[in-house]
Specification:
Elements (H helix, E strand, L loop, with lengths): L1 H25 L16 H27 L11 H35 L1 H8 L18 H18 L5 H18 L15 H6 L5 H9 L11 H5 L12
Helix pairs in contact: 1-2, 1-6, 2-5, 3-4, 3-5, 3-6
Protein name: Fatty acid hydroxylase domain-containing protein
Keywords: Membrane, Transmembrane, Transmembrane helix
Subcellular location: Membrane
């Protein structure tokens, strides 16, 4: 039991740190939004966030994994490339529904955290200490903030969406980590928030870019959703990043 818990913790930690380091490396090759005007983390802030990852973030990721694992479908037989391909193809529409549901609950809680002064001050404010987010500051959050805006929406989306297999659960967590860090990377790039189906953005225009969440950190009245612009557009809180000039 202890070995299994240690393995889950280690895999979650590796996934998070690897993605942070990946986007930090990309930031040395690609331009950033607002360029040299972006504020950087201090050494003390860097140490604080890494400590938070070890103490708070990874345990909440493990909690999400444990919850989903209880009902994840086991893959019968060996996992060959054909099985993986089928699993991935089926994963795409399932993950789309999951993310729409997740984003709704995240939007509601996130919006509430900004509208209720006590919640903002005691739960969510730490995440907005950084005016300009970066890959590492993705995880500058308190435990209650993570539980309300991440774990609970994840568990609700998992319960209300289509059932996923063990493999699809791991794909979901990998994608989730990727898009969370990418959204906070501050990179001036054209990538969108649902990379497993690029056509979705071309057809619907609901996928988010890095610029959209970056705007939320400088203009906190807008862009509360994490994955799509759908719920912000429904509730009239979406603003195109390129249209904001003041």
């Amino acid at each position: 039991m202890h070995v299994q818990l240690l393995l889950i913790y280690s895999v979650s930690l590796l996934r998070i740190v690897a993605m942070v380091k990946w986007f930090e490396w990309i930031a040395t090759k690609k331009p950033q939004i607002q360029g040299k005007k972006r504020m950087q983390l201090t050494n003390e802030q860097i140490r604080s966030v890494y400590f938070s990852i070890l103490r708070v973030v990874v345990p909440t990721e493990c909690a999400s994994f444990w919850f989903a694992k209880q009902t994840a479908r086991s893959i019968q037989g060996s996992l060959d490339w054909q099985t993986f391909l089928v699993e991935f193809i089926v994963f795409v529409p399932k993950s789309l529904l999951f993310e729409i549901i997740f984003d709704f609950f995240h939007f509601v809680v996130h919006w509430t955290c900004h509208r209720v002064p006590w919640l903002y001050k005691n739960v969510h404010k730490r995440h907005h200490v950084h005016l300009h987010p970066c890959p590492l500051s993705t995880y500058a959050q308190d435990g209650m903030d993570l539980a309300l805006t991440n774990v609970i929406p994840f568990c609700l989306a998992w319960s209300l969406g289509f059932p996923l297999s063990d493999l699809q659960l791991h794909l979901l967590l990998a994608y989730k980590t990727y898009v969370e860090v990418a959204g906070h990377s501050g990179l001036d790039i054209k990538g969108v928030s649902f990379p497993q189906m690029p056509l979705l953005h071309n057809v619907t225009g609901i996928c988010l870019r890095v610029h959209d969440h970056d705007l939320h950190h400088t203009r906190q009245r807008y862009n509360f959703a994490k994955r799509f612009s759908l719920w912000d557009k429904v509730f009239h809180t979406f603003r195109e990043a390129d249209t904001i000039t003041s």
